[in-house]
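This section describes the prediction task in plain terms. A model, or a person checking by hand, is given the sequence of a single protein chain and must write out its three-dimensional structure as a string of tokens. No templates, partner chains or ligands are provided. The sample shown here is typical of the held-out split.
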Amino acid sequence: MDKREYSFSELREKQVINVIDGRCLGHICDMFFTKCGKILGFMVPGRKGILRVFSRHDAIFIPWRNICKVGSDVILVELCGGVGLLSTEYAEDEHADQKE
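The expected answer:
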């Protein structure tokens, strides 16, 4: 049976894998919504150095439209040639929500 509803707690336990290069991006650490409740995407931690800890500036934003499949233990995403920019994605979707 294919589950269609997930809590944030369930999603953040799943590994996020980029299907383009097979790279494991980590676990979801944050999600972003419009003021109308539309999901914009989620954030996974970026690369961490030996002496660096996770910061929001290092994080990777994954637009919701780039999710290919939510499986039982992984979330498959398609990110080619870079990652989404949160501010650009958010601004476009907020503008679209205002038109509705």
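For orientation: The longest helix spans residues 86-99.
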